[in-house]
Amino acid sequence: VPVTVYHDQHEASRAVAHRIAALIKVKQAKGEKTVLGLATGATPVGVYAELARLHREEGLSFRDVITFNLDEYYPMQPTAPQSYVRFMDENLFNHIDIDKANVNIPDGTLPLDQIPAFCLEYERKIEALGGLDLQVLGIGRTGHIGFNEPGSAPNSGTRLVTLDDLTRRDASRDFGGKENVPTKAITMGIGTIFKAREIVLMAWNGKKASIVRKAVEGEISGEVPATYLQLSDNVEFVLDQDAAMDLT
Ligand code: F6R
């Protein structure tokens, strides 16, 4: 698996943002739309800040960009402080010229019985646009990508999942206690992610070092869903020095 280690997360984030910007511009020049898969959480914040700066100061336009977020908690109201709708607005969409009609985030407000149809439609919509050009990923300490927790199937699609206890513990600060963290989420599947033409998994910080080592060097297994990325020809791991420190 190709791994690029940067001195720090700021340098790494700028590099990923510039790669995304270059992709958007190449497609714009051909009159094509760019379809991006996006992640939330602490990891991509610097990438989104740099994309917002490129828009503000260097005229990068997102008019021709369509986005699909990986996941959303369930249940979740879009106006709640922890919602990924709100996260994306605050960290990216409010600072760029994207058409909000081109933004797709799993809907945390649906009644349970409407979720399967919603998930199929999410997949169909991505496919109808020609698939994801580039998928941005973080990695959870369980080895999850999106919210594909241990046990996820390699061909899984968008679906309702149960969050791992460690994932809920890691989210407890945002929710003021683990008991307030939803037990479920809607997430793109491993199979959905795999179909993206380019996949960039980012990880910063020594807290991610041991799971990054398992993801990059460990045996491919559903126990660490990120290990499935070893089977992709289109993946790059982008790390800071601390997240890379356990790699041999
Ligand atoms: C978020 C997502 C998750 C996070 C992962 C790491 O949309 O899909 O897989 O990328 O939990 O979270 P942070 O970046 O907060 O360490």
Radius of gyration: 17 Å
What pattern of helices and strands is seen along the backbone? Answer: EHEHEEHEHEEHHEHEHE
Bound molecules: fructose -6-phosphate
Distance between the termini: 13 Å
Strand content: 15-25%
The class by helix and strand makeup works out as: alpha/beta
CATH fold descriptor:
Rossmann fold
> Strand order, biggest sheet?
1-10-9-6-2-3-5
Structural account:
With 248 residues, the protein is of the alpha/beta class. It is built from eight helices and ten strands. The protein has one domain: 3-Layer(aba) Sandwich (Rossmann fold), CATH 3.40.50.1360. The strands form two sheets. A seven-stranded parallel β-sheet has the order 1-10-9-6-2-3-5, sandwiched between helices. Strands 4-8-7 form a three-stranded antiparallel β-sheet. Strand 2, helix 2 and strand 3 form a beta-alpha-beta unit. Helix 1 packs across helix 2. It is globular. The model has no long low-confidence stretch (mean pLDDT 98). The structure holds fructose -6-phosphate. Fructose -6-phosphate binds next to loops. Fructose -6-phosphate (F6R) binds next to loops.
